[in-house]
Design the sequence.
């Protein structure tokens, strides 16, 4: 069981995402626990403000640190989270970004590090999210995602109160919510019991550094295009060979970067 806590000022947008399809079913079956937490609940003052003008001037608003950190501490509970008390403390602003996802588990931040919550800030400045990272996060017990909004988040949150900063790609979203959906879904489906057929995870794109082979279903001929004969031959060895070759050819044609890495890893062409 992995617990996912997503801190956002728009919980309703993510609730819809987490209630449907694969994630909704996994939640119902109790194989994952996914909660959305409204950061505004932890805001103070008559207007429950979660953002304010930037020191030094400039356009836009910045998310205030107090509600975010109060929300993190409420969800993490009495146990101190790694971001504040682990490897990042004393590292100074900016140093944490180099550590990258995974450093917390290896840096000996405590024998029970894996049992503690791992707090992740979603932001375009973070380490790029990959299938490799998804696999690693799926081994955690409790993942806490902080969704930033507006022009950014007070940098003290990033520097001292989170373990990792993650980006889903080199583009800027209006906030971390869409990124949280992406990351939660990619990680949750690797948690045992979420995807019915575990073999389907092993064979999919990126798992071994190659894209997936093409899949077909009925009808055998669609608008004049037939499925490859080998797939209806019943010859399992021939099918496996065809699929492997198709994976390699497809990766070479579509993703030269992945192909080069795969060749370097297994030393063949
Ligand atoms: N927030 C805004 N843009 C983002 C991105 N690319 N990845 C993660 N969080 C974000």
Sequence:
């Amino acid at each position: 069981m992995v617990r996912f806590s997503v801190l956002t000022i728009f919980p309703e947008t993510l609730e819809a995402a987490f209630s449907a399809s694969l994630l909704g079913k996994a939640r119902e079956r109790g194989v994952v626990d996914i909660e959305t937490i409204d950061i505004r609940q932890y805001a103070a003052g008559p207007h429950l403000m979660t953002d304010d003008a930037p020191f030094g001037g400039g356009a836009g608003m910045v998310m205030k640190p107090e509600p975010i950190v109060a929300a993190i501490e409420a969800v993490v509970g009495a146990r101190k989270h790694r971001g504040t008390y682990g490897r990042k403390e004393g590292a100074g602003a900016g140093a944490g970004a180099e550590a990258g996802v995974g450093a917390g588990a290896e840096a000996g931040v405590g024998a029970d590090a894996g049992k503690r919550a791992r707090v992740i800030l979603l932001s375009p400045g973070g380490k790029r999210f990959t299938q490799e990272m998804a696999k690693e996060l799926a081994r955690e017990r409790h993942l806490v995602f902080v969704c930033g909004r507006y022009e950014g988040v007070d940098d003290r949150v990033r520097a001292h109160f989170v373990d990792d900063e993650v980006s889903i790609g080199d583009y800027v979203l209006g906030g971390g919510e869409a990124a949280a959906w992406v990351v939660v879904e990619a990680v949750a489906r690797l948690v045992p019991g979420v995807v019915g057929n575990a073999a389907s995870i092993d064979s999919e794109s990126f798992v071994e550094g190659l894209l997936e082979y093409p899949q077909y279903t009925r009808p055998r001929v669609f608008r004049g295009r037939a499925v490859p004969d080998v797939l209806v031959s019943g010859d399992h060895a021939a099918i496996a060979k065809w699929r492997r070759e198709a994976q390699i050819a497809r990766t070479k044609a579509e993703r030269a970067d992945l192909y080069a890495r795969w060749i370097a890893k297994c030393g063949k062409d």
Summary: The pocket of adenine is lined by residues 122-124, 148, 167-169, 171-173, 175-176, 179 (CB under 6 Å). The longest strand covers residues 117-128.
